[in-house]
Write a structure and sequence with these properties.
The structure holds 2 protein chains of 2 kinds.
Chain A (H helix, E strand, L loop, with lengths): L10 E12 L4 E7 L11 E5 L15 E4 L2 E3 L6 E7 L3 H7 L6 E8 L12 E6 L7 H7 L5 E7 L8 H6 L3 E6 L6 E2 L2 H11 L5 E5 L2 H13 L5 E3 L15 E3 L5 E3 L6 E3 L10
Parallel strand pairs in A: 8-9, 8-12, 9-10, 10-11, 12-13
Antiparallel strand pairs in A: 1-2, 1-7, 2-6, 3-4, 3-7, 5-6, 13-16, 14-15
Helix pairs in contact in A: 4-5
Chain B lengths: L12 E3 L2 E3 L3 E3 L21 E3 L16 E4 L2 E4 L8 H8 L9 E5 L4 H11 L5 E7 L16 H14 L4 E4 L7 H10 L4 E4 L3 E3 L2 E2 L4 E2 L6 E4 L4 H14 L4 E4 L5 H9 L4 E4 L2 H4 L3 H15 L18
Helix pairs in contact in B: 2-3, 3-4, 4-5, 6-8
Classes of the chains: A alpha/beta, B alpha/beta.
Bound molecules: flavin-adenine dinucleotide (FAD), flavin mononucleotide (FMN) and FE2/S2 (inorganic) cluster.
Chain lengths: 276, 312
């Protein structure tokens, strides 16, 4: 939601896996050394080719998978990025089998980042499932500008991602699990409702997670006359606006590409009923 | 074939009157309007780009989902989404550096509209040639593709040939019984070259919902899965006509592209590979040159049609 002219241009790099660690549930943490990595504003993503790992390129599965840049580790040379992912199907299962020293093809950084909150304003970040991974850099940078509340949700405690990292940022962390194994028993959007009703107003609201969760967060915000930034997920083939495969309808009837015009959108601009 | 390694290779080819610095182009619909790839490499280093197919007016495409992955391939049903011929000329072409060879791709739903788009593109200095995408459903034939019926294809090529004096390539649909017949029809109507193949009509199903995976129900299959079919069609077409052929279908690397040259293609287009590897076209071009050097082939054009079929 920022002028794309200011954003770093994407690279294609065969990155080296430094670490690929199971983190409980179906969660993994992948650390990649990416030569020339220019850094990524919060909310941008990369395309990873799980089929193109190791020495030989394979073409099945064919398409790269979109993954948020969880964070850039600035101290390393070459720069390293972390990706938090859940094993969801064939591509992520292959990714889970990679070892330190393997190569994984990276194209990125891609997409339009979140707009930062106005300095001094409270920011409310709502993350569910793998959507949590899109919020870490946002939380880190927003925390330098004002108070931040991060609300994370998952089915159970084991499926939660990144909690310790968020806690280490010193932001206020609130948790919801559907089975009540940690924090509030219920949905993370209930935490958002409570925070908005108890708050002083004027907060910047951000949501990233499964579509029904983001749709609910958008409703909660809209009911209170508030805007909300969401980061949409969609199937992608290219990630940089050339296949036209990731199109979604906008509320005004036009078409947006999730990879090029998003993944971050103002919730009110999205035609939620038309999402795949 | 060839002799000892050579130090320099002449990579230039001529495709139906279009001079190319090497035989590698990018396939329509897989390279946007070109500028999207400028961060990755200098587009003047490949033979040329075939832009996304354009219509007379800007159009929106199909509802999502528009793409799905299949074994070693993908399905797409994007629809006719494009910026329209006028925005293509005034906005998209000027965004490309001067040395980039651009072939404009044209599709429409009626023959006179195809001809009108060709007219508007004629004489535009940045347009090196036109490619007629015959894989569009013909409204008057009840949705069957223009390229699926010989008489309709003949009318289309005749009308577009009359509309332009620019080099004219016709991109054939593979969804036909005999590709040789379609190739001959195009040659007979004055096409300068052929591009083949477009995507193969296909279907996939989600067994949980029992629904087709694409909103459009049917989609076009592309990627390595179609390469042997495409290679067969290029070989058959190259035996049926004398106009040059641009081979397309599942090319992922130089080895794949060289197979098309050997089977009679004068040039190739890299398609789906651009999605997973934005540097694919450049790597294919460099790989072909390296292969020629290693095999003592002084001119890449000398590889074309060198298939050796053992006597049976
Ligand atoms: C911008 C963006 C950022 C993302 N960031 C992350 C991240 O940081 N961590 C993470 O774990 N995942 C992330 N995802 C989702 C991730 O891309 C998918 O989970 C992954 O592509 C699944 O691949 P697969 O081969 O394992 O599953 P498949 O076998 O392809 O599919 C398994 C299941 O997931 C569904 N699915 C597949 N692809 C997507 C998709 N792109 N979006 C939604 N559902 C999908 C399928 O319908 C199916 O039900 C992100 C997606 C986008 C668009
Ligand atoms: C998403 C997508 C969009 C495409 N759009 C067009 C198009 O607009 N015009 C066209 O002539 N071909 C189009 N094609 C077909 C390709 O140009 C090419 O003929 C086909 O994909 C086979 O080559 P490949 O296997 O290398 O991709 C498209 C293909 C894909 C995958
Ligand atoms: S994923 Fe290709 S255009 Fe968005």
């Amino acid at each position: 939601m920022k002028e794309s002219a200011q954003l770093a241009l994407p690279l294609r790099v065969d990155a080296e896996v430094r670490e690929n660690r199971a983190e409980g549930g179906s969660n993994f943490r992948l650390r990649l050394a990416v030569a020339g990595w220019p850094g990524a504003e919060p909310g941008r993503f990369v395309m990873l080719s799980p089929g193109a790992r190791g020495a030989a390129l394979r073409f099945d599965p064919l398409l790269p998978r979109p993954m948020a840049v969880y964070r850039t580790l600035g101290v390393a040379a070459p720069p390293e990025i972390e990706v938090l992912y859940k094993v969801a199907g064939r591509g992520t299962r292959l990714l889970a089998e990679t070892h330190a020293g393997d190569r994984v093809r990276v194209v990125g950084p891609l997409g339009v980042p979140f707009a930062m909150p106005v300095a001094g304003r409270r920011a409310l970040l709502v993350g569910g499932g793998t959507g949590i991974a899109s919020l870490y850099e946002l939380a880190a940078r927003a925390a330098q500008r004002g108070p931040v509340v991060v609300m994370l949700g998952a089915r159970s405690e084991a499926e939660l991602m990144g909690c310790d990292d968020f806690a280490a940022l010193g932001v206020e962390l609130r948790i919801a699990t559907e089975d009540g194994s940690r924090g509030h028993r219920g949905r993370v959007t209930e935490l958002l409702e409570a925070a908005l009703d108890a708050g002083a107003g004027g907060e910047a609201i951000y949501a990233c997670g499964p579509t029904p969760m983001m749709r609910r967060a958008a409703e909660i915000a809209a009911l209170r006359g508030r805007s909300c930034q969401v980061s949409l997920e969609n199937r992608m083939a290219c990630g940089f606006g050339v296949c036209l495969g990731c199109a979604v309808p906008r509320a005004d009837g036009s078409i947006a590409l999730v990879c090029r015009d998003g993944p971050v959108f103002e919730a009110g601009q999205v035609a939620w009923a038309g999402l795949p | 074939m060839g002799g000892p390694a050579v130090s320099t290779v002449d990579t230039r080819v001529k495709l139906g009157g279009i001079a190319l610095r090497n035989p590698v182009l990018t396939a329509s619909g897989t390279f946007g309007y070109g500028a999207e790839f400028a961060p990755f490499f200098d587009l003047a280093r490949i033979g040329g780009i075939v832009a996304k197919s354009i219509t007379l007016e800007p159009r929106q495409g199909n509802r999502p989902p528009r793409i799905a992955e299949t074994p070693a391939g993908m399905l797409n049903a994007i629809g006719l989404e494009n910026v329209g011929v006028d925005a293509f000329i005034t906005e998209k072409l000027p965004a490309l550096a001067a040395g980039v060879v651009v072939v404009a791709s044209v599709f429409e739903t009626e023959i006179d509209r195809y001809a009108e788009v060709c007219k508007r593109l004629s004489g535009v200095p940045r347009v090196a040639g036109l490619e007629i995408n015959a894989s569009c459903p013909h409204v008057k034939s009840g949705g069957i593709e223009f390229g699926q019926r010989a008489e309709v294809l003949a009318q289309l090529v005749r009308a577009t040939r009359r509309a332009t004096s620019a080099p004219l390539l016709v991109k054939l649909s593979p969804n036909v019984t005999d590709i040789r017949e379609m190739a001959r029809v195009c040659e007979g109507e004055g096409a300068d070259g052929l591009s083949l193949v477009n995507t193969l009509q296909a279907l996939d199903i989600d067994i949980e919902t029992r629904r087709p995976v694409l909103s459009n129900v049917l989609g076009g299959l592309s990627g390595p899965a179609i390469r042997p079919v495409a290679l067969r069609m290029v070989w058959q077409a190259s035996q049926a006509v004398r106009i040059p052929i641009c081979g397309i279908g599942g090319i992922m690397n130089a080895e794949d592209a060289i197979k098309f040259l050997i089977c009679g293609a004068t040039a190739v287009q890299v398609g789906t590979a651009n999605y997973l590897n934005p540097l694919a076209a450049l790597e294919v071009a460099e790989g072909i040159e390296a292969h020629a050097r290693r095999h003592g082939v002084a001119r890449v054009a000398d590889l074309v049609g060198t298939i050796e079929v053992p006597a049976r």
